[in-house]
């Protein structure tokens, strides 16, 4: 095969990204269907672009995380609701409750460390160098053990090497 593959007229990368984001929606939807309880040791780290279209978060969080934010769904969350385009969840940040609306298109990573599973997505907003920021620390205990990324799926059709 040649290193100079022709440009595709079919947007395979977008189709695959959309399908993988549907995995996140299905997992969260199953949590909603079972009453909002996470089974076993499952918990999720969800990273998303705070400036993406459709993201609704409180102003103090947008100021603290102007580019990207990671939330943890583990012990303290409520009102999880999933739609075709995204999800809504209630979390606490420094003991202050907040409601977040996050479209699936804004998600850049989804990790379940309990089973060493992860997905990474291409950003759907303009590529910007991420600004340094603090961790979200939404009142969830830190997970023990390092994530070596052994089951992380990265899809990167858009870049030529």
Structure characterization notes:
With 161 residues, the protein is an alpha+beta fold. It is built from 2 helices and 8 strands; from the N terminus they run H-E-H-E-E-E-E-E-E-E. It has helices at 12-33, 59-64; strands spanning 44-49, 68-73, 77-82, 86-93, 96-103, 107-112, 117-120, 152-154. A 5-stranded mixed β-sheet has the order 2-1-6-7-8, covered by helices on one side. A 3-stranded antiparallel β-sheet has the order 3-4-5.
List keywords for this structure.
SH3 type barrels, three-stranded antiparallel beta sheet, alpha+beta, 161 residues, 2 helices, single chain, five-stranded mixed beta sheet, 8 strands
What is the structure about, briefly put?
The chain is 17% helix and 29% strand. The protein has 161 residues and is of the alpha+beta class. Strands 2-1-6-7-8 form a five-stranded mixed beta sheet, with helices on one face. Strands 3-4-5 form a three-stranded antiparallel beta sheet.
Topology, pairings included?
Elements lengths: L11 H22 L10 E6 L9 H6 L3 E6 L3 E6 L3 E8 L2 E8 L3 E6 L4 E4 L31 E3 L7
Parallel strand pairs: 7-8
Antiparallel strand pairs: 1-2, 1-6, 3-4, 4-5, 6-7
């Amino acid at each position: 095969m040649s290193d100079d593959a022709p440009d595709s007229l079919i947007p395979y990368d977008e189709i695959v990204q959309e399908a993988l984001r549907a995995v996140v929606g299905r997992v969260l939807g199953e949590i909603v269907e079972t009453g909002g309880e996470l089974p076993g040791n499952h918990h999720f780290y969800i990273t998303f672009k705070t400036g993406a279209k459709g993201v609704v978060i409180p102003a103090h969080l947008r100021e603290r995380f102007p580019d990207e934010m990671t939330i943890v769904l583990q012990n303290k969350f409520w009102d999880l609701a999933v739609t075709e385009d995204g999800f809504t969840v209630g979390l606490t940040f420094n003991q202050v409750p907040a409601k977040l609306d996050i479209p699936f298109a804004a998600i850049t990573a989804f990790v379940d460390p309990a089973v060493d599973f992860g997905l990474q997505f291409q950003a759907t907003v303009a590529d910007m160098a991420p600004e340094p920021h603090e961790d979200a620390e939404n009142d969830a205990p830190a997970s023990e053990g390092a994530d070596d990324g052994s089951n992380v799926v990265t899809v990167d059709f858009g870049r030529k090497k």
